[in-house]
Amino acid sequence: MSDTRHTKVLIIGSGPAGYTAGVYASRAMLEPILVQGIEPGGQLTTTTEVENYPGFTEVQGPDLMIKMQEHAQAMGCEIIGDIITSLDTTQRPFVAKGDSGKTYTADAVILATGARAKWLGLESEDKFKGFGVSACATCDGFFYRGQEIVVIGGGNTAVEEALFLTNFASKVTLVHRRDELRAEKILQDRLMKNEKIETLWFHELEEVYGSDSPLGVEGIKVKHTTTGEIRDIPAKGVFVAIGHAPASELVADVLETHNGGYIKVTPGTTETSIPGIFAAGDLTDHKYRQAVTSAGMGCMAALDAERFLATQE
Ligand code: FAD
Ligand code: NAP
């Protein structure tokens, strides 16, 4: 088989935005190719219950993403397990290179590369990553049965992770830098009612400490945000849940970005600063960052691409 594939629409990313773009672009007979990236299904594959995706009172994140993938495939979208390592926007058709060695040429591109977990950037956090420090409770929570765990952050992810981790941990301490959570009220309510969770307000992670051989976490030092007082919390697991940053590295040098790397689109559309390149989902959205809004933008991107291609004919 040739190592170069041409498509009218190349969709990069397999979260709600990518798969929805796949459904719509397929139904527009554009025969799209969707490249899944390193995380097939996107961020929702790292969570358990999703309770706010319309049509599902409750659905497991990974199950929802399999349904979306099957939907896109059923409509005719070709789905490829590859990672795009570069995108040349100076040529027409656009040229994307895959980690597999394949080249993809496309008349239009829909960027749906979403967002990735942020880290605090501490040396000790880095040292114990994968050895007690994690950013994914559903992936790693199981390893901490009967142990004490800390979660850092105050958004939906932090609260959901803290709640989920009570399934395994003897105690979960949520450490937040303010005394107010960003998380939805329904999640806050569940957090406050959970007897296994203690919330430590006005504290920031200062250091993760542990043993070197074998490498493993024993606890953390946290600092009070106003008094500066240092406190020690014993823990075997540290879950960092301080938000997500857009995965815009493929195009950050060539497309206009704003609010810390989010791809700028013309308001009310998914058009980027380069005609023929569209962006959808968390990659463009510093404000809502929900599965349903990402799916909505995926739909818009496919419709925008269809109109763009019609003007090129
Ligand atoms: P993502 O889901 O981030 O997917 C990005 C995709 O791009 C991935 O498939 C990745 O592999 C791919 N990709 C990245 N780079 C490349 C590349 N170079 N080449 C090819 N592919 C690439 N939202 C809700 O509405 N309800 C919830 O209950 C909910 N729970 C959540 C729980 C957690 C733990 C997290 C982290 C988020 C949660 N969210 C929830 C937010 C929701 O997951 C996101 O808003 C949504 O997934 C964004 O969709 P997306 O398609 O923009 O990107
Ligand atoms: P988020 O909403 O941006 O929250 C990040 C949290 O981390 C905030 O509480 C923030 O504190 C804290 N934080 C950030 N930087 C920090 C630092 N350097 N040190 C200490 N604390 C820090 O991120 P998120 O919770 O990952 O959510 C991302 C998006 O996904 C949101 O739109 C969210 O609604 C969505 N999501 C939805 C669901 C759901 O619907 N159930 C579940 C998960 C995620 P401050 O509050 O002080 O800024």
TrEMBL record:
Class in the EC hierarchy, top level: oxidoreductase
Gene3D superfamilies reported in the protein's UniProt record: FAD/NAD(P)-binding domain (3.50.50.60)
Molecular function via GO: thioredoxin-disulfide reductase (NADPH) activity
Gene Ontology biological-process annotations: removal of superoxide radicals
Residues covered by the FAD/NAD(P)-binding domain: 8-298
GO cellular component: cytoplasm
UniProt remark on cofactor binding: Binds 1 FAD per subunit.
Keyword vocabulary terms for this entry: Disulfide bond, FAD, Flavoprotein, NADP, Oxidoreductase, Redox-active center
Source taxon at top rank: Bacteria
Tagged with keyword DNA damage: no
Cofactor names: FAD
Chemical reaction(s) catalysed: [thioredoxin]-dithiol + NADP(+) = [thioredoxin]-disulfide + NADPH + H(+)
InterPro entries, A to Z: FAD/NAD-bd_sf (IPR036188), FAD/NAD-binding_dom (IPR023753), Ferredoxin-NADP_redctase_2 (IPR050097), Pyr_nucl-diS_OxRdtase_2_AS (IPR008255), Thioredox_Rdtase (IPR005982)
This enzyme's EC code(s): 1.8.1.9
Pfam families: Pyr_redox_2 (PF07992)
Family: Belongs to the class-II pyridine nucleotide-disulfide oxidoreductase family.
Subunit field text: Homodimer.
Listed name of the protein: Thioredoxin reductase
Naturally occurring in which organism (per UniProt): Epibacterium ulvae
